[in-house]
Write a structure and sequence with these properties.
The complex is a heterodimer of chains A (about 290) and B (about 270). Helices cover about 40% and strands about 15% of the residues of chain A. Chain A is α/β, with parallel strands linked by helices and about 290 residues long. In chain A, helix 8 links the parallel strand 8 and strand 9. Chain B has about 270 residues and is of the alpha/beta class. The model of chain B has no long low-confidence stretch (mean pLDDT about 95). The chains are: A alpha/beta (about 290), B alpha/beta (about 270).
Chain lengths: ~290, ~270
């Protein structure tokens, strides 16, 4: 099911690695080739454009490090639980080997980076899922770090912003990975009861068990344009209905139209939007004055 | 219990899955009249429609009013047409949540029966927010101010099962399974070969014993020799015995303590180093 999803995702939104490899054949200078419109541009230009294709506006998948660089005020990010790494709860053959290979390849310990930062001066907690690490599937570490982010947001009385991306549950952790859905959703519910603000930003791709848990529980749900958002894999559904699905099925726009996303926001406006929304959720002085005067 | 364990030691997880998929495996429709009295089925999510894959209503257990929410496997093609082979749509999960909220209001415990290959995968399910519906249940059941007991009757497949599985105590029938994805799906994703279902089944740790060892389930309800289909009445008695004990324990608890214990039951699941 998820395997099919990944194939489709890969076909629709080629990963950065493939882009680099393909363009390396054409010239000695690596160029970004957009998987949507096939235009080429230099990586420097792409970076200046926040990794959005200058021709068609495709919001390419970016690393947690790059996301921090374009979202947080410079130097403000403080990482939490940095060294947390998964064990092998169901003794899945060579899971440790797979994890350590991914760690070497990506420089990450796991598929989510969490911490605190300021955005246009607004202090908040932030979590960013990185699809380069095992398609940001959710196992023990993603579950624990996200849960701690919710708990800290409640304790510290700070807003929480989570940038989601995931292929779903981490198969290699079996039932333990499924339970992370309940654990994170429960923590989200507790933050909500405490009156905390939780904003989700759906990025490419947000699917499976992450869609069916904390990604869908934001007070405000923002999506980047044209990203893939859904529960079940596209091929699985096509297999059920025996026909091809439209190109925009399970896109951010599809989710907006069906009522599951509050707004779609371009990457270049994301920082400003997040800062404004945080300010709009501060206790209002006017409201308090009105209440006092009554 | 020790005798049961010895008796079944040579049964593989794959063998158990065959028992659970037996065509005469009792469903919630068989158990309802054996366990509850005065049962009234309530329909609809008040938002879109009524999903036959999830049954809900109110009845009595040992004289006490309770809310029952269950995934419904069909016993024949007609029943399966109505219950979509126990694969719920979003409106099924929303009906479940509506009835759970009703139970909270009227101070009744909630008893959930899990029996699904998984949430339905289709265009309509996506349009109506399958992910959101499951997520909402996980969050809301975690803070539901009344005791919740869940029992896995057969297959507990993925998020579609977990949506009725956020509870104070989870029991598994002896041959039941609980898994992150079907063994077929697991083999397909990890080895790109769905025919390796049996091999997947035997390494995924999906049995009742595994669920207890992983901290997911608290109890195993024994089945008669060869499986529940050989004696549904005895199986129902065993379920009732578990429910009586579990409910007595949970309804006596202070609700804040109960909610903290429910949260911590899930909070502590996960294995990592720092």
């Amino acid at each position: 099911m998820l395997e099919d999803l990944f194939k489709v995702v890969t076909a629709r939104f080629n990963g950065d690695d493939n882009e680099k490899e393909k363009s390396a054949d054409a010239s000695s200078v690596p160029m970004f080739k957009c998987p949507r419109c096939s235009c080429s541009c230099g990586y420097e230009q792409l970076e200046e454009n926040k990794w959005v294709c200058p021709e068609c506006g495709y919001h390419s998948r970016i690393s947690a490090k790059d996301r921090i660089a374009i979202t947080c005020d410079s130097g403000s990010f403080i990482e939490y639980d940095k060294g947390m790494s998964s064990l092998n709860p169901i003794d899945f053959p060579d899971y440790e080997g797979k994890i350590s290979a991914m760690q070497d390849k990506t420089g990450l310990c796991e598929a989510v980076v969490t911490g605190e930062c300021t955005i246009h001066g607004e202090r908040c907690l932030i979590g960013i899922m990185d699809s380069h690490f095992m398609m940001a599937s959710m196992g023990s570490v993603v579950g624990e770090k996200v849960t701690r982010a919710f708990e800290r947001a409640a304790e510290m009385n700070l807003p929480l912003i989570l940038f989601t991306a995931s292929g779903g549950a981490r198969m290699q952790e079996g039932l333990v990975s499924l339970m992370q859905m309940a654990k994170t959703s429960g923590a989200a519910a507790r933050l909500s009861e405490a009156g905390g603000l939780y904003i989700t930003v759906l990025t490419d791709p947000t699917t499976g068990g992450v869609t069916a848990s904390f990604a869908s529980l934001g007070d405000i749900i923002i999506a980047e344009p044209k990203v893939l958002v859904g529960f079940a894999g596209r091929r699985v559904i096509e297999g059920t209905i025996k026909q091809r699905l439209p190109e925009d099925f399970q896109s951010a726009e599809f989710m907006l139209e069906n009522g599951f996303v509050d707004l779609i926001c371009d990457r270049k406006n994301m920082r400003r939007t997040l800062a404004h929304l945080i300010r709009l959720h501060r206790p209002s002085q006017k409201m308090e004055d009105m209440t006092d005067g009554r | 219990m020790a005798d049961d364990m010895e008796k079944t030691l040579d049964i593989t997880p794959f063998d158990r899955l065959q028992i659970v998929r037996h065509k005469n495996r009792p469903t919630i429709r068989d158990y309802l009249p054996l366990i509850f009295t005065d049962f009234y089925e309530f329909h609809g999510d008040r938002l879109f429609g009524d999903d036959g894959a999830i049954l809900g209503g109110v009845g009595r257990f040992h004289g006490m009013p309770v809310t029952v929410i269950a995934e419904v496997k069909g016993r024949d093609i007609y029943e399966n047409k109505n219950s979509n082979f126990a694969m719920p749509h979003p409106e099924g999960y929303r009906k479940a949540l509506r009835l759970a909220r009703q139970a909270e209001k009227f101070h009744r415990p909630v008893i959930c029966f899990i029996d699904t290959p998984g949430a339905f995968c289709g265009v309509a399910a996506e349009k109506r927010g399958q992910g959101e519906a499951i997520a909402k249940n996980l969050a809301e059941f975690m803070t539901l101010k009344t005791p919740v007991i869940s029992i896995v009757l057969g297959e507990g497949g993925s998020g579609g099962a977990l949506a009725l599985g956020v509870c104070d105590e989870l029991a598994m029938l002896e041959n039941a399974s609980y898994s992150v994805i079907s063994p077929r799906g697991f083999a397909s994703i990890l080895w790109k070969d769905a025919t390796r279902e049996e091999e997947a089944c035997n390494i995924m740790r999906i049995t009742a014993e595994d669920a207890v060892a992983l901290g997911v389930a608290e109890a195993i309800i024994p089945e008669p020799d060869g499986g529940a289909h050989n004696d549904p009445e005895t199986t129902a008695e065993n379920i009732s015995e578990f429910l009586a004990k579990s409910l007595n324990n949970k309804i006596a608890k202070n609700i804040d303590l109960l909610l903290n214990e429910r949260y911590n039951k899930f909070r502590k699941i996960g294995e990592f180093t720092e």
